[in-house]
Structures are given as C-alpha cells and as structure tokens.
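Q: I'm teaching a short session on how sequence maps to structure, and I want students to see two examples side by side rather than one. Could you give me a first protein with its sequence written out and its structure tokens following it? Keep the formatting plain so it prints cleanly on a handout.
A: Of course. Example one:
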Amino acid sequence: MSTDTDGSRQTVFLPEAPSLSMLYLNAAATAARRRISGARPATGLPDARHGLRGVKADVEKLTAFQHLLGETAGDFLPSGFIHALAFPVAMSVLNRDDFPLPLLGMIHLRNRADQYRAVHFSESLEIVAWVENLRGHRAGSLVDLVAEVRDNDGVLRWKGVSSYLAKGFFLPGVDKPGVDTDGVQGGGPETPFSPPVPTALWALGVDTGRNYAGVSGDFNPIHLSVLSAKALGLKRSIAHGMYLASRALAEVGPARSEAFTWEVMFEAPVFLPARVSLEISTSRSAGGHWDRSDFTGWNPRSGRRHFRGSVATLD
C-alpha cells in the first residue's frame, strides 16, 4: 500500500482491488461492534482518498455485462461497466473506520457520470475515489461518493458522482434542510407524473439481482434473495439501481456521442420479480444530430415512477 498527497487529501493506493463481498461483511461487523460498544461515529468525512492503479477490464465479464444489459457488443467499455470497475475502490472509502455513516442499508438516490472519451477494453486505468458534500436530509444524512478514472497518461476519461442516503441516521451538527431535492426514494418531494406511452417493457426475474451481481461484483444482500433482503428490512430483494440505469443507457443506444453526461434519479425501488415500463424521448440539434435523450421507468400496474434520467452531449 502506498500514499500520495494531492492538495489537502492524501491518496492511499490499494495493493489490489477490494472484494465487495468482504467489504459488506466488514461493514456488518462494524455495525454490530458499534451497536455493542455504543461508540459514537465520527461526525466529519475522512480526508483520505483511495486509489488503484493498473486496472483492466475482464473481457469475459465485459462480454457478460454487454449481453445482460443489452449493450451493443464492442471493444469499448460501456459507462455502466466503468462504474462497476470503479465501484470496489469507491466502496472501500465507505468502509473506512472513520467514515461516519453505516454502509449497509444506504440508499442510492442519484448518479451522474461524465464520460469524456471512450475507453478501450485493453487500456490500463487508474481509479481514485473519495467522499464529499455531507449534508442533512429530512430522512437522514446524504453524502456524495466520487470516482475518477484516468488513463496511463493521467488524462481524465470518466467521472462519476453517486449520492447516498443513510436513512434514519442523523449526525449531530448536520442540519436538516426544509426542502429536499435528492429524490423521493429517500423521502424528498415527489414530482407530478403521468405515465406516457412506453417504448419498452422489461420483465425482470427474481434472479435479476444475482445476475447483475455476477457481472458487476456488487453482491449487496438487498439485491440477492428474499431472505437476505428481509434481513436488512426489505420485503423482497430489489434490482440494483445501476442495473436499471445501465439498461436504460443501453436502450438509448449507439446514437449517443462519445463524450456524454449520463444522469439518473432513483425514486422508488423495483422489487423483484417485476415489470418495468420505459419511455425514451430524444431531442436533436438544428442539424439533425443527436443531442439528448430523456428516459423514465415506472411500474405499469401502479403507475408509480421508479427512476428518471437523461443522456446528453457533454459540452
């Protein structure tokens, strides 16, 4: 393990990619230890960043990811796959002893990824992740998890910001806002929604979470089975938010430009098995070129919206 200093933050470079399964087990042990000891967690965020060098895509997992998500097969990494590559490093930051919020049970409210250039599967990458912007929410505490992916020349190729809510966990000294703007899944205000005519209908089996875990490495128990989800307070397992977002991105298709911004807000969990209706609307510039696609996913039976987002040309 090595360290570099960048401004006020020290980057701790990990010797190898963390195991997400071990991170979740360690998070469970930490939560139990805190409950037994009554220890109060820190109230600030760790200054350290975590990094990993020499990261390369596993070709078999890349192919399986493209197949599962409906991405066009090719030699360049889908943005959702880059997120999955960076995810273990990012999660290791949330697993630090000086991170104040509980990792297990955190709710992914929104995600933004800026892809600056296409990434070939053979490239060696450097990933650095950190947390920032701790703030209050009427339902708990919010934090942003940031990951950057650079190539061998140090050029930034991809950046992701994921906002997580620790529901019911209120930190002393962190004020709750009067109005929340980070998605209704965590208790924020719901925006009016009338289901449009769908452009696609997804049928998600009970094994959807396990299948996505197999290609992404994210074996969070809330996604794997009814029993493991119930152990964490859910009635059934739920689909990964990034599975839904990545599949919507795949539905937008190859029309998007090489450099684009991809945003999604998660509003209600998708309990498995499920059907999800999807609508995509596309806008074009005066020259007829693709400029932006907006997507919305909802429950076709209840009409409740699960997520909404957009893919747009990066300025």
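Q: Perfect. Now a second example for contrast.
A: Example two:
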Amino acid sequence: MVLPKGALVAVVDGEKLVLFKNTGDHAPELTALPTPDLNGGGGSGGHPSSAANPDDSTQAEDGYAAGVAALLNQQALTNQFDDLFVVAAPKTLGELRKHWHKALQAKLVGELAKDLTGQPTDAIATAIANA
C-alpha cells in the first residue's frame, strides 16, 4: 500500500497506543510521535461481568479502545491530520470501528487487523507496505 506522506499511523491494542507520522514518499517511513494521555473512556457495555457478559479485562480493553477512538475523533474534528492509517489487534479494531466519527471515517485511508504494538518501527512499516 502507498501510504500518503504526512499520514498519521495509529498502532493500538487493548492496552497501548503508539502514534507515528509517515515521512516517506513512496514506502512508509515512520517517525514516532509523543503518546497522548488517554482518560480511558467507556466500552460498549456498562454491564457487570457475568457468564453472559465480558470479563473485567475485556471491558477494560474495550474501554481503552473507546478512549483511543475518542482521541482520534477529536483530532480528526480539529483537523490535526489529513490521513489516518490504523493498525490494531483484530478485536480492538472491531471496537474502534464502533466509535469512529464520520469526520474520522472520511480521513481513514486504511486499516490493518494485526497486533503490532510491541514490534519495531521497521516491522510496522513493512506490514503497512504489504497491506
């Protein structure tokens, strides 16, 4: 995939967010950005844990994903980026999608359902290039 120069790349799982800016022209070259402070956020459900509901760790991960979505939505609404590419663990990506604002969806240039939060920058860039 050709990632637009200047695109924001968000690499996220249920516990961690890493942001990059693409500085490459033809192939992705990722430059790390400061990690913003997240206040958490609410998950999809507010139900207590039981056999029919997610456990506490699942709710915490969903809440974190909702917090990441809120942050990215706010940045999209204030035009802090023109293009966004999201790399997220499959479950986290599904939760993120539930919270995307229309302004963010308009700036979304791609998604990769893969958990790469612990990987080196080069591995993330390669995965995006091969997406």
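Q: What should students look for in example two?
A: Point them to this: Helices lie at 56-77, 90-99, 102-107, 121-129. Also worth mentioning: The chain has four helices and five strands.
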